[in-house]
Amino acid sequence: MTEQIHEALSRKYEAGFVSDIESETFAAGLDEDVIRRISAMKEEPEWMLEWRLRAYHNWLTMEEPDWAHVKYPKMDYQAISYFSSPKSMKDKPKSLDEVDPELLRVYEKLGIPLYEQEMLAGVAVDVVFDSVSVVTTFREKLKEAGVIFCPISEAIKEYPELVKKYLGSVVPRSDNYFAALNSAVFTDGSFVYIPKGVRCPMELSTYFRINEQNTGQFERTLIIADEGSYVSYLEGCTAPQRDENQLHAAVVELVAMDDAQIKYSTVQNWYPGDEDGKGGIYNFVTKRGLCHRNAKISWTQVETGSAVTWKYPSCILKGDNSVGEFYSVALTRGHQQADTGTKMIHLGKNTKSTIISKGISAGQSNNAYRGLVHMGPKADGARNFTECDSLLIGDRCGAHTFPYIESRNPTAKVEHEATTSKVSDDQLFLCKQRGLDTEKAVSMIVNGFCKEVFKELPMEFAVEAGKLLEISLEGSVG
Amino acid sequence: MSAWLQQVLHRGQAISDWLSPVRRQALQALNDTTWPGRRTEQWKYTSLSAVEDLALATGQSQSQPEVETIDGIDSLDLLFVDGELRTDLTTLNLPAGLHVSQLEQADALHQVAATSLYAQIKPKRHLFGLVNDVLAQNILFIRIEQDCHIQQPIRIISHSSDGHESHQRVLVQLGNKAKASIIEQTQGQSNSLSTGFTEFDLGEHAQLEHYRLLMHTKQAIYFGGCHFCLHDQARLDSTLIGYGSQLSRTDVDVIHNGEHANAKLNAVYLLAEGEHFDLHTTIEHAKPNGTTNENVRGIVGDKANAVFNGRIHIHRDAQKTLAELNNRNLLLSRRGQINTKPELEIYADDVQCAHGATVAEIEEEALYYLRSRGISRSQALIMLNFGFIQELINQMPNQQLAHWLAPQLRARFKEMEVR
Amino acid sequence: MLTIKNLHARVEQKNILNGLDLTIQPGEVHAIMGPNGAGKSTLGYVLSGREGYEVLDGEVLLQGENLLELDIEERARHGLFLAFQYPVEIPGVSNMEFMKESVNTMRQQRGEEPLSAAEFLKKAKAACQQVKLPLDFLKRGVNEGFSGGEKKRNEIMQMILLEPSLCILDESDSGLDVDALQVVANGVNSQRDGKRSFVVITHYQRLLDYIEPDFVHILANGKVVKSGDASLAKQIEKEGYAFLGLDSSEEAKA
């Protein structure tokens, strides 16, 4: 059966085309001057440049982390271009009508028809193409509710006080190697502010696309949910098929004030590289949320892309009674490597966290869950429940679990469980006996395995995730 | 580099015996080792600052420790005091098939057998494992001939006395279908540093009942380990009891090097005062159809710090492996710490592996039940805490040993801050 | 023996007992029946002092002592015994060790000398035999791996050993076959000595065929809505709780 599964597992990456968009791209290399130029291109205030430079100097003193269960050749940070922008962005479009039609076609091809998104579901979309945000829809309607949703480059100019106060407040400049690099060179990303007591009237979403060759993408997202507010935010990513490895080092910071809730969902489908493991995105991302009193942050991720993933969306449960959640499906195939998980840092009383992680490994891939649950000395009555399940398809892949548990409080309770299994011959036999082919059967079984996570996704995303999983599995099966 | 390690390297160069080639390799590896810090994954939660500049006596020790006999067990006792073998091996009345010798005086035949063991079972030894490779003397070689069932438990007692540093090594080889029971016991509460590693080779169908009683307390610093290699159908039943001390680190490694081998590991740690106890276990399933069942439970009181790292590694060829690891902890005090990390690393698909870890308090419901029968809250807590440990003690194949241990464990409990 | 006056209690913000009154004289057997959710089990938990059961109002006197002011274990030492509907499993703590500790605590309370190991073992064995539990159950962990029926019999064995003055049996009949039911009932009946009182909480009349009650009370919505003699239980068996004119949705809700 494994044979059959593998045969079917060699399907092409569907978002792998390159778009012929005229761009303006910096020469490769990183020094202070590059950072000054990025800042100047963005017409940033002086404080922002200073912030970047300080991050850059921090970065210079740091070393690339090597503790993750991934192997990749050392990256040459001087061979990467740190800025690329479609030429047509010079006079930035105000609405979709003004967007370069070629760009619209790109998104159409990706299955993200921007017009449709605008018209239909009532999803507000921010689109980041290479280093810049190209369009943000529904801004007016959101403004009526008091919600700010715009490219972060714009927010730096328009809402400097908010950005100054919160940027780097959850993920400090020198937090880790990739976060420091991002802090120095980030080019765009989304900014969201939900005012007190407001329930954001629609889902907000950002689509990220790396198009240009030899560029890195360093986006920065900052979401602030003020007291008692609610927002659901979706994020999707793709990149063209190229032989070189491209770096994506993003930082996402969430701030949930007292009684606020943030739901952050990701469907990550960066180019994973070809069958021989050539090319693909290095997805080194720092995502972290800070919960104040009674606040809740929920991370849901479906990770199917990237050659190497290094990503731990985390929650700092600082306020009493705050809640953190992490629901993850990570599927690796071919030569993909993923080291992903979460950190739940319980600082406040009666804080609660739930971690549900589903890892699926196929081909010659390696898929690791890495997590930390920390119960601080003041986290009286805190609770954590963690469940990590791995599914192996074939005998050339790896599935790993590295949960760190640190407890400093006798009244806190931590429960961690992990299991590993395979698609059993009995399950397959049953499905086939009922007339399903191997591929369909495996996809059904895997979908069932991931159900707990999918149900956390917003509806349209759940469908997309299911399909993505199916596509990703085709070719892994056989 | 630490002053202590420098002095180890210096002493290591002076040792010359037939094991020197292996010792030199370890010496080389030590030269290339940087002193572990917080960022060294292996030592993330265990600080070695107490060892860094330690300078203790390394010569002969005058101490004459008392060794308590175990009621109901007529064990064959082998006593080490500060790394020096005090038992006169020539006077031992050994059952047929059991050979106990000192490796330095081994004949050619035994040398061949020993080199396949010495520093061979666990390929990647940490700093103190390497130090032991370099410095261990009076190496004990216990060999049980094939088909021989040794009824009499063999007890190896290692005593550390005030101001001493010692390095002790034991090799145990069980021939095919051989059977034995070995109790390793460490003791001493004064300012001392000792390393103690034992390598076990279990032949096909061999059966080993093993106990490691880590009873060092107070000021003692200890680094030890047991490395087991299991061949086809071998069976290991091991129980580890750990008290904490100033600094205590133990590595248990089981390598399933044959098919259908079976390992059962139970471990208990009870920590009080400011003790630090670090247990790392690694189970390597290198061959198919192996079974591992590991249960580790700890109770941490006062300012004590428990570290547990339980790794299960299923190699590509180890299909049909069944491996389970469970770690449960009770934290009794606000000043105590528990750091646990069960790890799975799996490269074979047709396996059943699971691990679980919990840190919790005694269940309220159980507490209520006992109190509803008139038992005071504090007494109920002691009973429940003890019950938590007792469950594993009850599984010890040698219940005589369990009976001997029970009152000591109870006494230790009283030292702990059970509220 | 026991006087309950206007008892109000709640669990998790929900009022369960709403002004319950009950008086029990020495030697009497009172059956408490009622639909699911009437507060039957809550009564047992409140009397035994379980945490999370908050008394809002009312008074409970056990042999003149204000029960509500006492800790769980003090209530037990004053002679209150609750046989649980779902006894918890405590692996690692043996039944023997548990009961020995418990019995000697009770003896100390009564000013008696603690039993020696041998004396205790003799008593425990006898109690075990009385409820038809194999002797090796004494060595096993408390309720560990016991079947439902074995757990119930273990509760009765504890009752026999502890010699309480007031026994509350919380659905000790649920899930038992006829043989086990008889064992439980015989165990209870053997302890009826004219001084010891019993509160038998049950959903069905069945148990009362074996343990003849002096009084039967119907509990609904947290208070006693009807009291009578044994014939009341028989009437319920025939007609259900409907004749009481209770809101049938109450039962559905529970």
TrEMBL record, chain A:
This is Fe-S cluster assembly protein SufB. It comes from the Bacteria. It comes from Alkalimonas mucilaginosa. Transmembrane segments: none annotated. Residues 208-449 form the SUF system FeS cluster assembly SufBD core domain. Residues 140-200 form the SUF system FeS cluster assembly SufBD N-terminal domain. Belongs to the iron-sulfur cluster assembly SufBD family.
UniProtKB/TrEMBL annotation, chain C:
It holds the Pfam family ABC_tran. InterPro entries: AAA+_ATPase (IPR003593), ABC_transporter-like_ATP-bd (IPR003439), FeS-cluster_ATPase_SufC (IPR010230), P-loop_NTPase (IPR027417). It comes from the Bacteria. Residues 2-246 form the ABC transporter domain. Belongs to the ABC transporter superfamily. Ycf16 family. NCBIfam families: sufC. PANTHER family: ABC TRANSPORTER I FAMILY MEMBER 6, CHLOROPLASTIC (PTHR43204:SF1). This is Fe-S cluster assembly ATPase SufC. It comes from Alkalimonas mucilaginosa.
